[in-house]
Design a protein that fits this description.
This protein has 328 residues and is an alpha/beta fold. The chain has a domain of 165 residues: P-loop containing nucleotide triphosphate hydrolases (Rossmann fold, 3-Layer(aba) Sandwich). The protein has 12 helices and 11 strands. The strands form 2 sheets. Strands 5-6-7-3-8-9-11-10 form an 8-stranded mixed sheet, sandwiched between helices. The longest helix is centred in the middle third of the chain and has 18 residues. The protein is globular, with a radius of gyration of 21 Å.
Length: 328
């Protein structure tokens, strides 16, 4: 069953005032997320991977209503939670939560850990009286001692802050948790603990995860489906095992080939990408990846590709995919 369905979501940031835009004739807005469409099934994990600056975190914040989107639609559990203007419906925010990219910065230094992880109850369930018991329950749930409730954020480590962020995210038993870089800045052993904890909570509570990351090892380990993002667009999306085994988009193939190998003495070989990522202010015509693509042809610089199904069953936005489509 589809839990979350996003269609043509676009997020733009203003870069010039109306007068400056009129005077110079230049664009007033820059598109950071450009018409993303995705579906997430209940109780599964969808990973969005890509280089830094590709718009992953902006997309996540737009889903939470923290960043307004200019156009597009979002359906959650068969309902449209966002009004024409304004914040999302309260019932939606009760069922969707977020783990922020910087776990320490997301915790107020003036409040105890217990107060921070029970904050969702104060907002959505003000009638709940025994907040102390809930704080202890959540701390134990994420593998922290109950006496951590009396500590402050500066008294815990980065890995413990991640656990606190997860405890706060699952406090209300949400159906969807948006995890923005859940393992960034952590030692490998601590990363494994956080991922195993997320997997256990998913198995026990059937929570769905939308995971934003540039760590492809995490994507392989955790996700059921993977979307590869480049300059605000999804260039390939499909089952994780198929995307990694047979990437169809040249950018997805280069990204996966650049992943460090865990086998001693084994080195992956990938085609070197030309140049740098283009500025969103001067987005290339046609396919945004064509200036760097080793297989680009004249059509790529003239016409933006439409999504098509590759031979592996993934959706790929490329005129000349590496894996042939059924109609080719």
């Amino acid at each position: 069953m589809t839990l979350l369905s996003v269609r043509d979501l676009t997020v733009s940031y203003p870069v010039r005032g109306p007068l400056a835009g009129w005077w110079t004739g230049q664009k007033r807005f820059v598109d950071v997320v450009c018409g993303i469409s995705l579906d997430l099934a209940e109780g599964t994990t969808l990973a969005i991977a890509g280089e830094s600056g590709s718009g992953k975190s902006t997309f996540a914040r737009a889903l939470m209503g923290l960043t307004p989107f200019r156009s597009g639609s979002l359906i959650f559990d068969g309902k449209a939670p966002f009004p024409a203007r304004g914040r999302p419906a309260r019932a939606y925010l009760h069922q969707v939560s977020m783990m922020f990219q910087d776990p320490v910065a997301s915790l107020s230094p003036r409040r105890t850990i217990g107060a921070l992880i029970t904050e969702p109850f104060r907002i959505h369930r003000p009638d709940l009286r025994n907040l102390e018991a809930e704080a202890k329950r959540l701390l134990v749930l994420v593998g922290l001692p109950a006496d951590f409730a009396q500590r402050y954020p500066h008294q815990i480590s980065g890995g413990q802050a991640r656990r606190v962020g997860l405890a706060r995210a699952v406090a209300l038993n949400p159906r969807l948790v948006i995890a923005d870089e859940p393992t960034a800045g952590l030692d490998v052993s601590v990363q494994g603990e956080i991922l195993n904890l997320m997997a256990r909570l998913q198995a026990e509570q059937s929570v769905a995860f939308l995971m934003i990351t540039h760590n492809l090892a995490v994507v392989r380990h955790m996700s059921d489906r993977t979307a590869i993002m480049y300059m605000g667009r999804i260039v390939e999306e499909g089952p994780t095992d198929r995307v990694f085994a047979s990437p169809a988009h040249p950018y997805a193939a280069a990204l996966i080939a650049a992943e460090p190998s865990s086998l001693p003495g084994h080195h992956r070989h990938s085609a070197a990408l030309k140049g740098e990522v283009s500025s969103p202010l001067h987005r290339p015509d046609g396919c945004a990846f064509h200036p760097r693509c080793p297989a680009a042809r004249p059509l790529c610089s003239a016409t933006a590709p439409l999504p098509q199904v590759s031979a592996s069953g993934a959706l790929v936005s490329c005129h000349f995919p590496l894996q042939r489509t059924p109609d080719q």
